[in-house]
Structures are given as C-alpha cells and as structure tokens.
Write a structure and sequence with these properties.
The chain has 19 helices and 14 strands. The protein is α/β, with parallel strands linked by helices. The strands form 3 sheets. It has a 6-stranded parallel beta sheet, with helices on both faces. A 6-stranded parallel beta sheet has the order 11-10-9-12-13-14. Strands 7-8 form a two-stranded parallel ribbon. Helix 18 links the parallel strand 12 and strand 13. Helix 6 runs parallel beside helix 7 and helix 10 packs across helix 12. The longest helix is centred in the middle third of the chain and has 32 residues. The radius of gyration is 24 Å and the shape is elongated. Bound molecules: nicotinamide-adenine-dinucleotide (NAD). Nicotinamide-adenine-dinucleotide (NAD) binds next to helix 2 and helix 6.
Length: about 450
C-alpha cells in the first residue's frame, strides 16, 4: 500500500489533550480522516464549535482548516470512532500514582472498552508515556476482554517526543519517529502512516515494544538530568564566584555535550519530566535496581524549584510574613498555558506558607493557575499591573515579553528595587546600572564579581 492510499484510512485518537489534539490535527493536516475522542463532553462540544482548548502556537490555523474541511472530527463515542478506524492512538494521561509509578488506569480502562469494539483488523497504538511492559498488558487485556474470534489486532508502542510550545512543528517535522513493534506487518503500516512526516529524511526508528517504551523514559530522564546537572553547577558557581553563563558556552561548544538544555534556572516542571523521572525511578526499584542518578535529580529539582525563596526572605529582612511578592510567569515554560508541576507554582505555594501575599501575571497561564490557586493569590492584567504595590519581583518563566520591560515603570511600582530572576533573563551589569538589587541563578552580581 502506498502512502497516498493510506489516507483513505480513518485514524482515531483517544484523549485530546496536548498530545492527542496535536496528533489528531497534524494527521488531518496530512490528509488523513481523523476522529478525536474525549471523555470530557464540554471539551468535545467546544472543539466542535471551533474552540481550541489549549494554547499551542500554530495549532489554531491547522485545527480550523481541517475542522472546516471535515477531516478533523470530535466525539465522545469511543465505539463509533473505533469501529471505523484502522489506527487507534491512545493519547491518555499517565499521571503519577501515590508511589511515583505511572498510573495506567486511563490507558487500561480505555483498552478494556476497546476490546469488544474490535470489528476488523486494527492497530492499537500507544502514544502515552507508559512503563516498560505496557504493550504486553494492553495486548493481554484486548485478548482477554473481548477480541472476537477471528479478528486480529496488533499493539504498537509509538512514544511521543513533541515539546509543548513547539508541538505542531515537532509533530509535523519530528527529529525521529520511534515505532515499537515485533510484528513486521504492523511496522510496515506504521511506517506508511508516518511517511508524510519524514520526507526531510529524518529517521523512523523501528524497535521492539519494550525498547520503544524505555526510549521515551530514557530521553526525558536524560534531559531532566542535563538540566539538573547545570543547576548544580550554577549553585556551585554562586559559591565559588564563577558565572554559569560562561560555563554554558564553554562546555556547550563541545559537540559531545551540545548547546541545548544547559540553561540554569529554578528547575524543570511540566507534565512530563517530573512524572517520568519518578516513574522510571519506580520501575528501577520494582526490578531491584537503585537508579541513583534519578534519586539525585528528583531531590535537586525539588530544592531548585524553590531557589528564589531564601534570597527573597533574606533581602526582605528574614521573614516573608506580610510581604507582597510580584510573580512574572506561571507556565512551566514559555509558549504554553500548562502549569502542571510548574516551578512558579512550587515557589508560590512556599511563599503562601510563609505568610506572603502573591500577585501574578502570565500571558497565557492565568486561567490554568486560577484552577489551582483560586483566590489565594491576586491576578494582574499585565506585567506592570503585577508589580503594583508589591515589595519585590520574581521572574519564573522565560516569556519573550518579559525580556525587555520598562524597568523605570517596574522600579517606580515596587516598594524595593529588587528582582529575583529564576530564568537568567537579564544582564546583571545592566540591572546594577538601573539600580536594582538583582539575584539570578549561578551568575555573580557585579559588586561581587
Ligand atoms: P492531557 O492531560 O493534556 O490530555 C489527556 C486527555 O485525555 C484529556 O483531554 C482527557 O479529558 C482525556 N481523557 C481522559 N480519560 C479519557 C477517556 N477514558 N477517554 C477519552 N479521553 C479521556 O495529557 P497530555 O499532556 O496530552 O499527555 C498524554 C500522554 O502523552 C501522557 O502519557 C504524557 O506523559 C504523554 N506525553 C505528553 C507530552 C506533553 O508535552 N504534554 C509529550 C509527550 C508525551
């Protein structure tokens, strides 16, 4: 079957969050007929009316085009979508359970529903990040729970590597596609399905299911470790009087190390790194192996997310009770409204515990933050409104609009001219010239240099 013939196939995507909605929209953009399934009726209704439920650059244009031309549809009826689709992608949540393991209840719950719905040969493709062995569990559940006699299926592991904020670009031009299956026929169908996305020559990597599942965790754990290593270097820089920016350039120009993920700051957050590092550590434990690096990464990141609290407390006379802190940036990184495990949220929780009041601004993540903190904090209309009446300013997300603010306006609004920068957005020498007390991560303030 050639790539073009494949486009007659309907694809079902179950779960329309950051991964599912981007996956569905991008497949539709490539000409496939896609039906997105979600359990959330309100969300499905809104999508049917043309509302994109997440902020993701570039998504709205593709979403609108394909919804209008009828290639992108939405439903709450799993059965309807499964019956007419050959390819069934699972893009369901795998949140951390209480013990840190990945909670497979969404994936397995939907799998058990799908079993009796199989009416002809289908591929059940797992895009959720799942522990090693999940493809086997899905296969067993489908076999036990209702595969009708004579109807065949295959289970494929197809981990997703998109980054929120550039998810559409990542999906449309992936650096690699990982396909885990031990079945040649299923592998061939998957290669054909993805063929339009790799015309630039980037590889489709074929491997067994377990290796594909492990590849996703290894990638995220490695990246989390790289960030954490740099944060530890930054913390040491502060003590020895070195500048982490210089070290970043110094080591990043070594091609064995590479330039990316070397930016020191107040730790990583998001819906993936924190839970995936925990889940991999948990898998290691289950298999009787202590993955010591991961334990260190988890501990260091927990501390790093709160790295601005102590300097603010010290600057404000040793206590935060009764102080008012302005916070720029709530999303776990720029260009998303996702606040899951965001460093800003970890810091804000600690500030509230210490009796401070908090006034926040983020270009996209106000609503998602309201869902977490409600009226425990104040929400500002813009970055200048955020600093009004506050003692000091903390910067937690690297949004472009924070990079060149009108510092005179900021200084005039703050009670104390002090900026605590968790993302190293500003030059310490410039901040000094402007008359600010400036604290960043791993970089000396000029007077200490
Ligand atoms: P999400 O929470 O944004 O979306 C999950 C969606 O699934 C929601 O819309 C929810 O309503 C829906 N859902 C829940 N139960 C359902 C059910 N029974 N039937 C149908 N829909 C149901 O999650 P996400 O961020 O898209 O992540 C999904 C998976 O992809 C996770 O395993 C995650 O680790 C992985 N992943 C995420 C990213 C990322 O950047 N967000 C990147 C790569 C991989």
């Amino acid at each position: 079957m050639q790539g073009n013939d494949m486009r007659n196939q309907t694809i079902a995507v179950v779960g329309t969050g950051y991964v599912g909605l981007v996956t569905g929209t991008c497949f539709a953009e490539m000409g496939y007929a896609v039906v997105c399934v979600d359990i959330d009726e309100k969300k499905v209704e809104k999508m049917r009316q043309g509302f994109v439920p997440i902020f993701e650059p570039g998504l709205k244009v593709l979403f609108d085009r394909n919804r209008k031309n009828g290639r992108l549809k939405f439903t709450t009826h799993l059965g309807e979508a499964v019956e007419k689709s050959k390819f069934i992608f699972l893009a369901l949540p795998t949140p951390p359970g209480e013990d840190g393991s990945a909670d497979l209840s969404y994936v397995m719950g939907v799998t058990r529903q799908i079993g009796p719905m199989l009416n002809e040969y289908k591929l059940i493709i797992n895009k959720s990040t799942v522990p090693v062995g999940t493809a086997d569990l899905v296969r067993e559940a489908l076999e036990q729970q209702g595969k009708r006699a004579g109807i065949d299926f295959d289970v494929v592991s197809n981990p997703e590597f998109l980054r929120e904020g550039v998810a559409v670009d990542d999906f449309m031009k992936p650096e690699r596609v990982v396909i885990g299956t031990s079945n040649t026929h299923a592998g061939d169908l998957m290669k054909q399905l993805y063929e339009p996305f790799v015309r630039n020559g980037n590889p489709i990597l074929m491997m067994d299911e377990r290796s594909a599942e492990m590849t996703k965790y290894a990638a995220n754990a490695f990246l989390a470790t790289k960030i954490t290593f740099m944060n530890e270097i930054a913390n040491l820089c502060e003590r020895v009087g070195a500048n982490v920016d210089a070290i970043r350039v110094g080591i990043g120009s070594d091609s064995r190390i590479g330039k990316q993920f070397l930016y020191a700051g107040i730790g990583y957050g998001g819906s993936c790194f924190p839970k995936d590092v925990q889940a991999l550590a948990h898998t290691s434990e289950e298999y009787g192996y202590q993955f010591k690096i991961l334990d260190a990464v988890l501990a260091v990141n927990h501390t790093q997310q709160r790295a601005l609290v102590a300097p603010m407390r010290t600057y404000l006379g040793g206590r935060l009770i009764g102080k008012k802190i302005a916070v720029w940036g709530l999303a776990f990184k720029a260009n998303t409204d996702d606040v899951r495990e965001a460093s800003a949220h970890a810091m804000i929780s600690d500030l509230i515990k210490e009796g401070a009041t908090v006034r926040v601004f983020d270009p996209e993540a106000i609503e998602t933050t309201k869902a977490v903190f409600g009226n425990q904090i104040e929400y500002a209309a813009d970055l200048y409104d955020a600093v009004a009446g506050c003692d000091v300013l903390a910067v937690c997300t690297e949004w472009n609009e924070f990079r060149k603010p009108d510092w005179d306006m900021v200084r005039d609004s703050l009670k104390f001219p002090a900026v605590f920068d968790g993302r190293n957005l500003y030059a310490p020498s410039h901040m000094k010239e402007l008359g600010f007390h400036y604290h960043s991560i791993g970089r000396p303030y000029p007077k200490e240099a």
